[in-house]
Every structure is written in C-alpha cells, then in structure tokens.
Amino acid sequence: MTHLTLQAVTRRFGAAYAVDSVDLNVPDGKLVCFLGPSGCGKTTLLRMIAGLETPSSGSIEFAGADITRVPANQRDFGMVFQSLALFPHMSVAQNIAYPLKLRKTPKPEQARRIAELLELIQLPHMANRPVTQLSGGQRQRVAIARAIASQPKLLLLDEPLSALDAKLREAMQVEIRLLQQRLGITTIMVTHDQREAMTMADEIVVMEKGRIAQVGKPLDIYREPVSEFVADFIGLGNILPVTYDGAGAVSLPGGLRIAVSQAARVPESTNDIRLLIRPEDVCVKAATDAAGPNRLAGTVTFIRDVGASLEATIDCAGFTLTAATTPRETPGLALGMPVLAELPPHACKLIAARAVQ
Ligand code: ATP
C-alpha cells in the first residue's frame, strides 16, 4: 500500500493560513492535480508532502507510516519543480544517474537503468549530450527521467510545463500522462491551468484560499461544480444570478422563468444562487423558430470563429450568454443577428453564489 493520506494539514505563515486544514486521500497509481488560482496554497501543500515544508499542524501518512516530520531526503519521492534545476555542466546520462549515484547503486545497474530511462523518454541517442544543448521539451523529459530514476513511490510535479510554449506544453501533457499510466506511479501535479488538469488528472483537487473547494474526477467537477468559484475556475460558463421559485424553475434578471431539471441541486441558501449553463449546452436557434419554454430572444454581439469551433456572444436584455457551436451547426450566424438561445433544462445547474469578499 502506497496510499497518501493528509489529515487536517495546516501551514501558517505568521497569522496567515497558506494551507488550512486539508484532508485528502490520494489513491494508488493515480495522477492527482492540485488546481487553483495564484496564492491558493497549491505549492505549499505539495512542499509539505515533499518534506520541504513542515506543517504547523495536522499529519501526513504514506504507506501506513506517519511521515509528517520525516526530512525530504528520507522520503524517497521523485520531484520536478518549475525551475528544472538540471545540472548544466553534466550530460543527459549524468543527470539521470545523479540520484542513482547518491544511493550508491552499483555501476552496471546504473548503466542498465539509464539505458532503460532513455528509451522511456525517447531520447536513446542523447546520453552524452550536454543538457544545455537540449530543447525545452527534451530537458523536461530528462528532468522527469531523473525524478523517476530511483523508482520513487510518489512523483511530485510543481508546474513542470509552465516554461514551455503552448504547443509543446500540450504535447508534453499527453506524454507525461502516458508515461505515468505506463509506470503506474502515484503522481501529484500542481497547476493553475484548468485545461492541463482536465487533460492529465484522474482526480482534481480544486483549491481556494488554502482550503479544498472540491475534489473529483475532471468531468464530474466540470459538470457538477459545488460553487460559483469552482464553476468559474473550471472551463467557460454562463453564470447568471437567479431566484428559485421552489417549483423546478428559476427567474432570471428581468423576471424570465427558466425550467431546471429535477436533478438540479438547489443549494441550501436559496436566496443567493446562480444558474450555470456551459456554452456548449446553449443551443442557438433562428429567431423565426417558435418561441417556447427556456428559449430566450437575443442579439449576436460577438463571434469568435476559429474554423473548427465557433463561440457566439448573445445579448439577451439584461444579461449576456456565450454559446459554443460550430460553423456547420449554425451556418450564416452573423453579428447583429436576432436569435433564440435555448437553455435545455437538464443542462441548467443551480449553484451557490460566491461568498461576498
Ligand atoms: P502560485 O500558483 O502563484 O505558485 P500557490 O497556489 O502555489 O501560488 P503558495 O505558493 O502555496 O500558492 O502560497 C500560498 C500563500 O502562502 C500565499 O499567500 C503566499 O504568499 C504565502 N506563502 C507561501 N510561502 C511563504 C513563505 N515562505 N513565507 C510567507 N508566506 C508564504
């Protein structure tokens, strides 16, 4: 069992709580992302798991043992941080060999392992190349190979792709994910990029001001966010203030009634709720279509057409909706055009409003 369990883990800096009473279970072999805006405590939480920071209170257990106060170098975890810190004066192979040397792994075993890792990261012919002569993506792969060289039971990644350009970053996301799945190594990755978390994670831990706002599978969090903060942070969303009428419908600003499905959860504080509908769930119809329930008249005020997908901003007296569609689905859509925006009841979620700051 290599299960990681955090109980009420807290880190204060002076009077400020960087991490506030976090409980978390990280299942074996999974990739878990800590996701949240800058300053929400992701890195501090990861550093406590790594042993680079000591909790003010709470406990961290790994494989059944309390490691809360075990120093980093005795935890046997692999780490890759934002600043890669490969040794610039060393070759690729020497960098990968470094943790093996520290452990006094016998030379033949080191050579075997380096060859294996070079195959794994698809750089088999680059063993002797100085790391300064590698591309950003290649360096990233070497950093990961070095982190997993000594077969750690836990791999910790802190924004490992943040220095890469968008295209390479997307390619590396897939590469790291495939590698992680092939090795079955339990991995925790910090990111503030929701798309990256959605692409890579088995589970996402959304953090807000040092606390966990929600934990779940990426699509569950996307479809059933527990709050306005989570809904807003994960993906694009139309978030509208509404009042609940207690009979399966809500009223929008201006009094328009919108039916919501039975399954929609009504937050306990029914006074302060929001209607969430994702752009891909908003159906754009011709203004000449029959009016009907959940169909709102509006005008197209902006179109972002990038070929494969199309995003339309629709002004509906008093609020604005974003609809995601494709040029094929809505041919002829043009600026200034009157349309009907249909909000299917099953796609209308009710969530608690963000607390006033
Ligand atoms: P980012 O995405 O910007 O890296 P983060 O979510 O990783 O942010 P942390 O770096 O964990 O956030 O910081 C959480 C809070 O704790 C911040 O308010 C930060 O200023 C504070 N903090 C972190 N380290 C220290 C420190 N050594 N001393 C004082 N305050 C700190």
TrEMBL record:
GO terms for biological process: quaternary ammonium group transport. SMART domains: AAA (SM00382). Keywords: ATP-binding, Cell inner membrane, Cell membrane, Membrane, Nucleotide-binding, Translocase, Transport. It catalyses: ATP + H2O + polyamine-[polyamine-binding protein]Side 1 = ADP + phosphate + polyamineSide 2 + [polyamine-binding protein]Side 1. Pfam families: ABC_tran, TOBE_2. Residues 4-234 form the ABC transporter domain. SUPFAM superfamilies: MOP-like, P-loop containing nucleoside triphosphate hydrolases. One of its GO terms (molecular function) is ATP binding. Gene3D superfamilies: 2.40.50.100, P-loop containing nucleotide triphosphate hydrolases. The keyword Cell inner membrane applies. InterPro entries: AAA+_ATPase (IPR003593), ABC_SmlMolc_Importer (IPR050093), ABC_transporter-like_ATP-bd (IPR003439), ABC_transporter-like_CS (IPR017871), Mo/tungstate-bd_C_term_dom (IPR008995), P-loop_NTPase (IPR027417), PotA-like (IPR005893), Transp-assoc_OB_typ2 (IPR013611). The complex is composed of two ATP-binding proteins (PotA), two transmembrane proteins (PotB and PotC) and a solute-binding protein (PotD). NCBIfam families: potA. Belongs to the ABC transporter superfamily. Spermidine/putrescine importer (TC 3.A.1.11.1) family. This is Spermidine/putrescine import ATP-binding protein PotA. The gene is potA_4.
